Amino acid sequence: xxxxxxxxxxxxxxxxxxxxxxxxxxxxxxxxxxxxxxxxxxxxxxxxxxxxxxxxxxxxxxxxxxxxxxxxxxxxxxxxxxxxxxxxxxxxxxxxxxxxxxxxxxxxxxxxxxxxxxxxxxxxxxxxxxxxxxxxxxxxxxxxxxxxxxxxxxxxxxxxxxxxxxxxxxxxxxxxxxxxx
Amino acid sequence: xxxxxxxxxxxxxxxxxxxxxxxxxxxxxxxxxxxxxxxxxxxxxxxxxxxxxxxxxxxxxxxxxxxxxxxxxxxxxxxxxx
Lengths: 181, 82
Description:
- The complex is a heterodimer of chains A (181) and B (82).
- Chain A has 181 residues and is of the alpha+beta class.
- Chain A contains four helices and seven strands.
- Helix content of chain B is 68%, strand content 0%.
- Chains A and B meet through α2 of A and α1 and α2 of B.
- Chain A: Keywords: Membrane, Transmembrane, Transmembrane helix.
């Protein structure tokens, strides 16, 4: 669950680039097709060696259906980890939700006035053309840890937004609380 | 075991050859369904609790279950064909 302060608005959701998830999906797609290719080879061999009835195909289709279901579930487990691993940039702070696995989740907050620097790193041809990279938000406080996201989508846009919000907070006049005499 | 007519050995997984062939597949299927229900419950819990009611989560949920139904149907058809 995400708890926002009253009047706090989410300005941007930051996730890893879709290409990261596409790479996972691609391996699953290969794993889905591979048994069909293997079946093609083995079927020829088995028909040469054995007297094969109808049940060989039935057994193969049964096992293949279960294999596809396993891959389908695995795909959605990975997608859920990908989708729920997110930074919410609000008008007051950055909320870093790290979904490391299904049962391992960390939530941290960082107020804009605690930010010291934002570094982005876009390395490689794919990262340059698809616009993703690593982003690191360094904090001024010794007690807070730095925020880091690898393969973040549109890192430059994120850095600009964080600086804009940081400047707004810095320019905001300090509230003077009058003391009772 | 060699085939009486041709002398070619029979494939060792001739499920129709023994009476419990269907029962074995149904048992494997039932175990898989139980596993699917557990994992789906975990996924749905995460989607509903942490998904902030987003449209993407709703769409993903629908795709997950609709495609699962088709894949389960394929599995059941395989067993019934035995």
